Amino acid sequence: MDSPADSPMDSTAPGRPADARDRDDEGRARNARPRDGLGRPLPYGADGVPRQPEGVVRAPDETVAEAQRLLDDGKPFHAHEVFEDAWKSGPDEERELWRGLAQLAVGLTHAARGNVTGGARLLRRGAGAVTGWAASDGRARPYGMDLGAVAGWARELAGEVEDGASVDAGARAPRLRG
Question: pTM for the whole thing?
Answer without folding.
Answer: 0.81
